[in-house]
Amino acid sequence: MSGGSFNWQEFLGRWQREWVPRADADEEEDGEDGGQGLGSPARPAAEESAIAAAEERLGRRLPPSYREFLAVSDGWHVDQPAGIHQLGGVADIDWFGDPFDMTPMYEEGLGDDPGEAEVLLAGMWRRALRLETDSDMSHALLDPGDTDQDGEWALYVYKGWGGEFPDRYPSFRAYMEAMYRGFHADRVDRPDFVNATTRAQDARVEEAHRLTLRGRYEEALPLLEEARSFGRPESAILLNQLRHLSAPRDAQDYGFLVADPRYLPELLPVQAMTPARGEGRPGGDDHWLGMMEARGVPRGAAEDVLSALRDGSHRYAPAGAWGLAVAEARESARWGATDAAWRVLRNALPLWEAPGPSLVAPVGLLADPVLGPLVTPERGREILATPRAGESGPVLETAPDVDPPGLAWLTEPAVHGRPLDAYRCVWVEGVDPTGLPGLIGEEGAELSAATDPGKASRRAPRPHEREGVELWEDRAVVAVGRTAEGWAFAFDGYSHRYLSELFHSPAPAASPSGRAVVVWREPRRSSPDDRPAAFHLSVAERGVERYAFTLRGAETERSGAIPEALDPGRLCRPEDSETDRELRVLEALHTELGLSLPRFAVTRGRLPTFTTRSWTRAPQEGEGFAYLTFVRHRP
User: Fold this and answer.
1) Poorest-confidence range of 329-333, 471-475, 531-535?
2) Nearest partner of 221 among 205, 199, 201, judged by Cα
3) What are phi and psi of 339, to 5 degrees?
């Protein structure tokens, strides 16, 4: 509504014609409105002479939109459920004068370098013009010190019972427009509240629904946002789907729709994502389960979904051709081929069918433990920009793949803004990833469900916490997958262990029927010491280590017949930095052996994990080791 010329006569007339009390309003209370009765929130217009007299009494000319309002209605029954009820006319308004001494409190909170908005708010209390004559411990305050280029004064609504900062509106007109939208939202549950405005907003929701299914979600957004401000049914549900896919980590509430049998398989897992991560309100699982029960979801169904999300066994399994594509994509993403998985999903998106009219996008995909992490904000917007459910639209420009080839990315800044400062990996040629626990896993090791490798490593018990594990042992929690070139890999990027003199390469054990390669990059140190960080490579074939080398500072330890293409003497120059040497070796491993790692899967995705045998051997006679643990105590 805001912007350009404004017709107060038309606006207030429409509001007056639509006027009905709230569904929860007390009729006797609504009748106490200065004689207006329930049929009208308005007052007769103020004469120009009365407005001028008020300005002379106040010593200031009133801001344009408020002055124009008074010339149409000398006051208004706002009727907020909790807040302002009545705005006075020219005879009622007066300077606020800060009767509660708010100024010193706000001035004390300014700090050494306050912003302009903070300074304006601190000074507002003593210079503001009070408009309300009836309220719930609230005040409507026009501030002549907070003005814009049109001479409008900002309006602040302070709810004294809330103890929060006031709500700011850039002008009186903006405030009244917001109150009009609130008037509609407060009455949306009244079956007799039907008028030209409600019909127009519902038409906007229907148009937004069509646009969204045609991939034109950016055109649908403003329509839904306006309809949501009027409280129109369905607008919030549709808008939440667009917001959720545009920002997948931001939880959205789907209200009572979650209990509808048509939508429950899609929406209940999405609603359970927050409590499954251990986030949300105090009360934990019981609070969430109680909330779902109150919406009509059987408690057993909610408990099952929450448990499946926690243990990684949940599967997004829609019906039809889209469901077949989801299953195919999951099998690719399961082992780290996330770009290939996304291409399968992207190509199948036009085949998605809504289980009912309230769903406009496959938001259930977000809750799948394997596929959900693939939906980045960029890809979420790509879903929304794809015509689906039988609708057609323009061909969209697809986003590029996110996984670079090779291994050089290990030295580059990652999503958290810095390279992985430590990692170790075993690649095995000609082996299915499911066979890795049998080759290098600890006794009884099995692949877990898809999980966050970082969390799995941090939560793993340490040697002193495990019965039967020696303190010298270094058992790693590794993420398992398959490279684009067909090598199975076991990757640890989170243990931050150092390459010790007791290191025992797992390459021979991993290579009974072919080649295995081990790379270990020690953690970077925060300060120089006498022991530079190390980079290790070892290659074995059919159970025998063929060659290996370890770079540590300017020194190189080597064994076996190292191929010329991987010879550190050829790859690494004395003037090279630590990162330069690492990068040259990683590039050579990709070129000569075809080694790679899927960056997205190992840094942001979900992969199966298992615990390896120790990467260190038992100390021999004359050797020693140290094992340190650090415990953080809260003060």
Assistant:
1) 531-535
2) 205
3) -65, -45
Residue type, 505: S
Rounded distance between C-alpha atoms, residue 601 and residue 623, angstroms: 39
- Report the DSSP beta bridge partners of residue 426: 490, 518
Type of residue numbered 509 = A
Count the neighbouring beta carbons within 10 Å of the beta carbon of residue 362: 24
Distance separating alpha carbons of residues 238 and 225, to the nearest angstrom:
10
Q: Which two three-digit tokens encode residue 502?
A: 């007791």
DSSP assignment, residue 617?
Answer: P
How far the first Cα of the chain sits from its last, in Å, is 54
Check: CB of residue 356 under 8 Å from CB of residue 267: no
82 by DSSP, 3-state: which? coil
Distance, CA of 367 to CA of 382 (rounded, Å): 18
Tally the residues of the chain. Answer: 635
Q: What is the pLDDT of residues 222-280, one digit of tens each?
A: 999 999 999 999 999 999 999 999 998 888 999 999 999 999 999 999 999 999 988 86
Contacts 24+ apart (CB under 8 A), 506-509: 506/426, 506/440, 506/612, 506/613, 506/615, 507/426, 507/538, 507/539, 507/540, 507/545, 508/540, 508/543, 508/544, 508/545, 509/439, 509/440, 509/543, 509/613
Q: State the DSSP string of 453-519.
A: HHHHHHHSPPGGGSTT--TT--EEEEEEEE-TTS-EEEEE-S------TTB--SHHHH-SSSEEEEE
Confidence band, pLDDT 50/70/90 cuts, at residue 529:
low
Provide CB contacts within 8 A for 533, sequence distance 6+: 521, 522, 523, 524, 525, 552, 578
CA distance 25 to 20: 10
Residue 510 to residues 244, 426, 493, 566, Cα–Cα distance (Å): 43, 8, 19, 21
Q: Is residue 253 helix, strand or coil? A: coil
- What DSSP character marks residue 351? G
Task: Specify the pLDDT at position 243.
Answer: 96
Strand order in the sheet with 153-159: 94-95, 129-130, 138-147, 153-159, 167-169
β-sheet with 609-614: strand ranges across = 555-560, 544-552, 534-541, 515-521, 423-428, 488-492, 475-482, 609-614
Closest to 371 (Cα-Cα) out of 332, 422, 424: 332
pTM of the model: 0.85
Residue 408 is encoded by which pair of tokens? 């050089």
Q: To which residue do tokens 């803004």 refer? A: 417
Amino acid in the structure at residue 275: P
In sign, the C-alpha dihedral spanning 223, 225, 230, 231 is positive
Cα R_g (the chain), whole angstroms: 33
Query: Mean of the per-residue pLDDT values for the chain?
Result: 91
Cα–Cα distances in angstroms (integers) from residue 207 to residues 202, 227, 392, 565, in the given order? 9, 11, 15, 62
CA proximity to 341, closest of 308, 366, 370, 320: 370
In the structure encoding, which two tokens stand for residue 108, read together? 């004390």
